[in-house]
Amino acid sequence: MDVRDALLQHVEGARRDGRRLLADGKVSQLLDAALEEKENDPSVFFDLLETLLDVSQAEDAVDVFQYLERVADDVQKPAMVAHGKFHVLRACTQLLRRMSRREHAHACGLAQLFLAQFLPMHDRSGTNPAGPPEVEFPVHIDKMSDKPSGKEAAALPPVSYSFYSAFWSVQESFQKPQKLVEASTWKNFERIIRKALVNFASSANTEERESTFRETDAWPYLTTWRITGLQLKQPTFRACFLLQALVFTEYALHPPTPQVQPLLDEMKNGANNLKEEILKALLATISVPGFAEFLDNIFVQEMGWVEWKRAKCPSRSRPVAKSLGESETEPPGKRMRVGSTELLPGPEAFEGLEDISMGKLDGLEDRALVVPLAEFFKVAAEQEDPDNAIEEPYKVVHDNLFRWRAFRRVSAEEFDKLQDLVTDTAALKRYACSKSKAVP
């Protein structure tokens, strides 16, 4: 029986019995067996993984990603990533399309986290360092005439209209972070955040209100004046707002692009104090062990990400060249000349000549051979497969460096076909597909 048929048989049995797919351990054993055969055919494991995610519901997907975390050391090896990155990208993309980010937040979050850990740095998005925000969804703020009255006003916690309008108007600053570093915008942003911190500290955090919001979890994301007082009493709502404020305060202190200038020196002290106050309020709202260390780790990673983007996304594989100051000079290396070696008469001279000759032969063992033309075009041919779901702008045939290398190789081996390939990208794709068929 084929391993895929065996997997589908286990899935049908689990659906029939009404249990999770990985509950009895049979599917995990099947994946372990496929993972042990990775030296023979690594794609078997990823075929099973893609099939399993296609038939998984939200709870099953959580179990699958938890299994992948346990075997991360084997799955994330470079050889496995090279064979399975298209399978993983396709499976996780289909899973995120099928599920709701709001109702299945755990499964969607695990899928995105696994993609971020699995794909190497050069496969992630480094083409949009500016990061233009989404501003198509305006924030609707009630007018003064929409104030609740009568019994409705008596049943709701009172909130002044000035605080309500200022609290929700700060979302406009979140939508346009480039303007946040301006002096007038930053002062208004800082004033509203400090006012919100005072209001959060004075709001009562009752279990009754918290249980009410658990039953209707869509309420915290409405901007109506009528429920603002209830929203301020809900810890999840306060945590979301504080996280937003913390992220954009960090953005103002350390912008990710050179086009956005950081805050002025006289405003940085206030921004740092505001960041500490927000972090203190956030840790008081989310009383989870290890949350502070988690935030510190996130900030360290984000600072590295910002520095990488500000440097125009350099390759991680290249070592950074040592920069020398004006006073520092690197000593010149010794040049080997024939006359620089003292030759002694007798057998010692012949032994020295023999050692020199054998030492020069060592470089032949370490030399890198030129990749065959069929192997060179294999990646371009794989991306032309519709099953790999690679969008046209991201294909390697549109990369200038790849095209330059391809034209050099073709000019050396088949010069008569070079002119057609230079002027026609479609001809280059057909040529790559025809050449890759020779790869075993």
From TrEMBL:
Protein name as catalogued: THO complex subunit 1
Region (Disordered): 319-340
A GO CC term assigned to this protein in UniProt: THO complex part of transcription export complex
Organism the protein comes from: Picocystis salinarum
GO BP terms, alphabetized: mRNA export from nucleus
